[in-house]
């Protein structure tokens, strides 16, 4: 980090960095549509008479449909680490292109392959498609880090990730309309593949791995981005990952707990809304898709409201970051938990109240972006991508198991008591997941975030700790040792450390610090 750099040129107000951000936003949109269309498509394929009788309907039970929907998350789980490796070898641009194009081609072949193997074939297709989609996720952080100036990183990164919500809105609404059109359920896959391929064309033309390789960026904008990175992040370099410290970190384990709880709640609402609205509220697929999209529209709005709210209260010192995280996490977790319990007692005669509660539940839950999703950056800015990768892998396991969890309870979609069990269990997980996060979660940077973690750096005056000129010479050569004690809130150990580096603050003052 070079703090004495003055950035005079701020670059254009709208530049190539914003084009990259828009492309990442659309990347999320097309991939989320391709991912989530499966739940609506499965419903349309098994309820052909009510959606479009012109196309073949399949007699799949709840368990078989659960396997199909879970297949996508099986595949995603398998390739997240592979995506990070490919990003290093091929760059973010090529890896994201392979991921999205592969998913699009798989979607394009789906209508032709399903009649050959039934639900087993569809499950295999979903797994392969998930394997392609798992590749792009690790690359998003890499692309944002290289293109977003430090001052704009939160804003541009948040806009990119809001594509998840927009993609969810479209995936819940558009496929239902396509299923009832002359294109039928095969049209769902064809449209999803078409928009993904169109995005790939734009990505090949306008995307680049970094400002230094872009064909379109101007010199002013390039200098602004590079100077901002140098001033705030320093030179790009590989920092060893302190795996033991991360895996034994109580705050990080707490973060995994709340994110997994949130994943269960979100995927239960996301994947099961179409079935619940049809089975309990007796809505046809078109109304079903409309109200599902309405719920996630409220989530998109609430997510952006929370981002603005968080910026305001922190800048004006109304709340500390710790208080903000806990407050928003509690609201976005416990309020939906209560609503889920209430929804389970409603029937087709209370459609309006059910829709209001469902919309509120999904919308308020959008606050999790501020409550816990950004916590990896709080704990460790240097290892935020690694932490996020671990958290998402754990979340993918929950995503994979959620449809099967619901399928083991809901055997008949019209039995309200079965849905009550699903909602009650989900509510309990949400409640206790957030409770442990309130108690154990942290927002302060952890000791293992320091790039010199495990090494010796500067802390106290050399003349106070080491004494003589001879000892100073020993220190500079790395032969002196000192005893110290560490207490980071969870550990309290005494250790000896070698003095390996010193800097001279003035002519006679040397400063020593040890990080273990």
Give your account of this protein's structure.
The protein is globular. The protein has helices at 16-46, 48-51, 62-147, 153-161, 163-180, 184-206, 219-233, 243-247, 250-279, 285-315, 321-343, 351-364, 368-373, 375-379, 384-409, 416-440, 462-465, 469-477, and strands spanning 456-461, 481-487, 492-498, 503-504, 510-514. The protein is built from 18 helices and five strands. It starts with 15 loop residues before the first helix and ends with a strand. 71% of the residues lie in helices and 5% in strands. A hairpin with a 4-residue loop joins β2 (481-487) and β3. The chain is mostly helical and 516 residues long. The longest helix is centred in the N-terminal third of the chain and has 86 residues, at 62-147. The chain folds into three domains: 12-233, MFS general substrate transporter like domains (Growth Hormone, Chain: A), CATH 1.20.1250; 251-447, MFS general substrate transporter like domains (Growth Hormone, Chain: A, Up-down Bundle); 450-514, no CATH class. α1 runs parallel beside α5 (163-180), α9 (250-279) packs parallel to α15 and α9 packs antiparallel against α16 (416-440). Residues 457-516 have low confidence and may be disordered. The strands form two sheets. A three-stranded antiparallel sheet has the order 1-5-4. A two-stranded antiparallel sheet has the order 2-3.
